[in-house]
Specification:
312 residues, alpha+beta, Heat Shock Protein 90, five-stranded mixed beta sheet, 9 helices, 14% strand, transferase, phosphorelay sensor kinase activity, histidine kinase, Sig_transdc_His_kin-like_C, kinase
Amino acid sequence: MGVALQQTDLLIKTRQQATQLEQTLQHLQETQLQLVQNEKMSALGNLVAGVAHEINNPVGFIAGNLKPAQDYVQDLFGLINLYQEKLPNPGQDLEDEIEAIDLEYIREDLPKLIDSMQLGVNRIHEISTSLRTFSRSDKDYKVPFNLHDGIDSTILILKHRLKPHEHYPAIEVVRDYGNLPQVECFAGQLNQVFMNLLANAIDALEESHRQRHLANIQATPHQILIQTRLAEDGEQVSIRIADNGIGMTEEVKQRVFDYLFTTKSVGKGTGLGLAIAQQIVVERHGGRLKVDSVLGQGTEFTIILPVTDETH
């Protein structure tokens, strides 16, 4: 009888140890996968930061030379005006050349060309700033951050996936931004959350593209709505990212934040993006990440974040 009890006790302990070992192994696998994903995001951030830095140097040269070039052009036009005033009859050869180059058109168009160059430089500078915003490295403490800057920089990174393709039109992004204060957070990590949620929305819309006729898409274009609001008490902000794609079944919705769960084909999904997004929002920021979806109508993710670091 005693031997049987000992064997039963040993069996129970063995099962408990096996369960603990299985849980530990699963936790290690999840941690390893998260480290791999974080390393990928870190590599992307370094790449983007490097590109932004390399862009800044030549753009700086161009921007620095445009104003002097504009002044030189005005000086040359002034000199031509003076010549024409002092030499009203320069001769047939000069008159033919003036007509051949269409001097009056050059007077009108050249300043416009320089202005368009300046606009191009300004646009490149804006892109570079957005790239640096996206790739910013987090400190070991939270800092105030403009969430709209993070969202905009993420959209810029994904812009190539929003453009029209051969078989379907562009994906429209509608921004409905509220008046938000700066939020104390790990900005780089939240940019990763925005990246994962927006990429997921684009994936859903691309899948929907394959299931709908072009005429149907043109009648009800695919769209991503990004809406931000400040709570009435001023203590929380919400970021809502909604698409009108294929939506989810109830079963998929229940598992969407599980590690390694994905409905995408091999090579297109890792099952990590939404799980890591939830971990960043919930564990790192004390917030909430909710999903609402209707099959065939679309999906909406809502991020709720405290405005200030509640761990202070």
